[in-house]
Every structure is written in C-alpha cells, then in structure tokens.
Amino acid sequence: MTKNKRGLLWAILSISLLTVMAGAAMAPALGAIREHFADCSPMTVQLIVSLPALFIILATFLFRPLCRLVRTRTLALSGLILYVLAGAGAYFIDNIVWLLVMRGMLGVSVGMIMPLSTGLLSYYFPPEEQGRLMGLSAAMNQMGGVVATLLAGVLATVSWRCAFLVYLAGLIAVVLVALMLPNERLASKGGRLEVRTLLRFHPSVTAMLFIMLLFFVYPTNFAITAVAAGVQPMAVTMIMVGLDVVAFFVGLMFGWLMRNLRRQMKYAAPLFFLSGYAVLAFAGGIVGMIAGSVLVGLANGAGVPYVNTIASIKGGRDAAVTVMPLISAALYLGQFLSPLIVTPLAGACGCSPYVVAIGLALLFLVQMFLTRRHQALPPVQ
Questions:
Q1: Distance between CA atoms of 184 and 336, rounded to whole angstroms?
Q2: What angle (nearest 5°) sits at the alpha carbon of residue 332, between those of residues 327 and 129?
Q3: Is a pLDDT exceeding 70 seen at residue 373?
Q4: 121, 181 in Cβ contact below 8 A?
Q5: What is the mean pLDDT of the chain?
Q6: Could you give the domains of the chain?
Q7: What are the CA-CA distances from residue 61 to residues 102, 304, 321 (Å)?
Q8: Rounded to two decimals, what is the model's pTM?
Q9: Closest C-alpha among 301, 276, 245 to residue 353
Q10: Of 77, 86, 256, 381, which one has the greatest count of Cβ atoms within 10 A?
Q11: Quick one: how far is CA 333 from the chain centroid?
Q12: CA pair distance 140, 248, nearest whole angstrom
C-alpha cells in the first residue's frame, strides 16, 4: 500500500473511531447529569444517550442528496466540524432543552459521516481488500467506544460538563480528512436508489438491524442484572469494557477469518448471540457473566464487519450512496428499538430480557440461512 493510500485509510478509519461515541460515550456521565437536572424526569435525561440515534437515522436518508450537492471532503469536514461543535459545545449548556438540541445536532453530524466511514473503503479500495478493511473499521469503532466510555467516565468525576469534552477527539479526524481525503463527488448514475437495486441489499440491511437489536440487549440490561446478583459496579464496568476489547480483536482478525472461514462466518454472529445470551440467562455466577459477555462480544465483533463487507462488495464503488446509508440507518434503528421491543416482551412473557434475546437470535439465524446463500464474490485478503 502506497503512502498516499495509507494516509487515506487512516483518514477514513479516524471517522470510524468517532461514530460509536455519539450516544454510548455519555452513559457513564448520566448519573452526574441526573443529579444536576434533578427536576427533570429520568426518561428526559436518558434521551441524552438515545436521542442522537433518532437523528442519525433521519440524517442518513439525506446523505445521498447531500452527495449530489457537495464533494466528499467538504461533506466529511462539514459533518466533523458539526460533530465537534455539537458534542463538545454541550459543555457550555446548562438547560436540558438546549442540551437535547445539541444532542440532536450531534446525531445529524454522525448521520453525515457514518456512511463515509465504510462507503469510502469500497470506493477507494478493491473488493479483495474489503474483509480486512471492514474488520479494521469495526475494530476502530470498538476502540473508540472503549476509550470514549472510560475517558467520559473519568471526566464526569470532575464535572458532568467535562464529559462532553470527549468529543474534541473529532479534531483529529478533521485534520486527517483535510490533509488526506480527496474532494471527489460520490453520487453517480450507477448509484441510483431504485427499488430493484435495494432488493439486492435487503439481506444486509435486515442483518444489521438484527445485530443491533440483539447487541443492545446487553448494555441496556447487563449492569442492572449483574448488580442485582451482587457484582460490584467496578467489576461490572470492567466486564462491559472487556466485551468491547473482545470485539476489537475480532475486528483485527476479521480479514484472516474471511479468508479461511468465509462460508462459516455468515452464521458466526447469530450463533454467538444465541450461545452468549443462553449462558447469561441460565448459567449464573460471575463465570457465567464473563463467558456470556465474551460470546456477545464475539458476535458483535464478527457480525458488523461481515455485513459491511458483503454489502460493500455488492454495492461496489457506489456503496457509499446506495447501501451504506441504509446499513447506517438499520444500525441506529436497532439501537433505538432494542429496549422498546425487548423490555415489553420480557415483561409480557414474565422472563429475562436474555430469553427474549435468545428468541431474536433464532430468528436472526433463520434469516441468515434463508438469505445468505454463498455467492461468487471476489476473494477477500
């Protein structure tokens, strides 16, 4: 890989590092924010984490029209600058309504850059490199989650306001994109968003929705169930961070996995989710919690880059303006809907949310079996 290509790759990966931070990074600070805005309802405060996902979904559907109007580097820099201003700018806000407005703007910024974080890999790099590169993108995404969550937690001990300064990390991406990313126009005749074209991509979009529905059962329930079982809060935090570390290393190995176990990889995510939530639901004890967390981390680490790889190869150079916005929308829709679907179902059935997740994992496995037939795609490096 040439020096210019390496620089371009790092610029794209720097965007991947930021996208997961939109909502999850603020989770450790919610306690301090809740204390400061004691007169607000708990659900209003929780919107600080969940509201960006809704605006990300809305913004992704504006992505292709934006690509018609502005070129790649201009679009990326606009999204990144808005990301820094809306994210870190919340430091200066002391009104819950305006704070939520800033969180909505942050969601818009991520909706502008999220499709670029994967779509540009398919635009600038050949299909045979997609497995390795999508694995690196997923690994950077997981690493961003680990670093941002830990850093926001530390900053929140100083002040709830300081936690928002974690979004200043976007300045790194601003510099790399300004220096390394070409200013081309992505939209083309081949990138028309037609029904016939979308029919080719529905398996990937549905699979990403399943992955996020399943994965977010874990962060929305694990701390509650673990503390109720007598696990110390610090131990809970370390286990949850460990899950992201597992997913990070799976991302680093993903290129090798796709070269050697390509046919099997399409079933990796549903099977790991199924076994992970079965362990969490029925094993009990700290060992069961750790084992279940590792399995869920393996599922997330394998599932996200697999879906992105297949979608990017199918979409070709136009993936950034066809399938990747849909994948991004499905990703955040799954995050937003997961607690709204799983919690009521668990209550209605009188069972653990992990049992509901087992049922969803079975449906995911069936979906992969019915729609993920092996195709003559280019070899993956």
A1: 33
A2: 35
A3: no
A4: no
A5: 85
A6: 1-182 (1.20.1250.20), 196-372 (1.20.1250.20)
A7: 20, 20, 10
A8: 0.80
A9: 276
A10: 86
A11: 11
A12: 7
